[in-house]
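Feature request disguised as a bug: please show the residue count (265) next to Protein kinase in the output. Example input:
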Amino acid sequence: MTRNPGPEFWALIHPHTGDPAGTRHTSRGDFSDLTTVVECEKGPFFVKAMRNRPGGRYDSIIREKLINPFVQPICPALLWTAEDEEWIALGFEVVDGRQPDIGPGSSDLPAIVDLLNQIGELGLPEIARDWHETRWDRFTGDETEAELFRGDALLHADINHTNLLIGERAWAVDWGWPTRGAAFIDPAMLVIQFVAAGHSPRAAEAWAANCEAWANADPEAIDAFAAAKTRMWWQLAWQRPDRPSRKALAEAAEAWANHRGVTVL
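Example output, currently without the count:
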């Protein structure tokens, strides 16, 4: 999302950008107060900014700032940060890429799977050791199921086609909520995205099977995750019936759960 910040914002980032020459709209970063490519004297830079207010969105941009050194070169490099009482801004390198086609038969699918394997090979940095993955706990049947989502893998945890870029190479962007959890979770999120894009659940799982994290996963954990994601997406769809994409993802998650023989109550 791109809003129109006042002159105080441009003054804040001026030491890093120099004189601006213009901005280019970007569809990335729906939960940010500003995402734009700034053409400037010292750039260009992809700039993501939030109002400096306590809460989830502030916590998210701080995590993205902290994790960046540990997720390169999978993610564009963070080149500078700027903060005052009103704003916090991150300035990233600009990479030449497009959102991938994740539909059946797309030539982008092997690159996406390779990218998830690269994410799976990242070590868990000390900075992320206490970022335990808990956001799906309330959609599980009990604490035993929730424990199946625990682990020591560094997760992107927001895998969807808008957070992937394909160019001369592939990138995973928008590391706004990285967590520590079970390694299968990122490939499992990809399965739902693939089903929503037109793959059968069986075909989507066949692509996920090329990810080492999926191949080594406990099937019971995958079943619990499929059920939890189905409950989550239906709740989100009911809350915002004006967003058909949520209903589509709920239907995709439910189709996947049904394929696995998982009953979702």
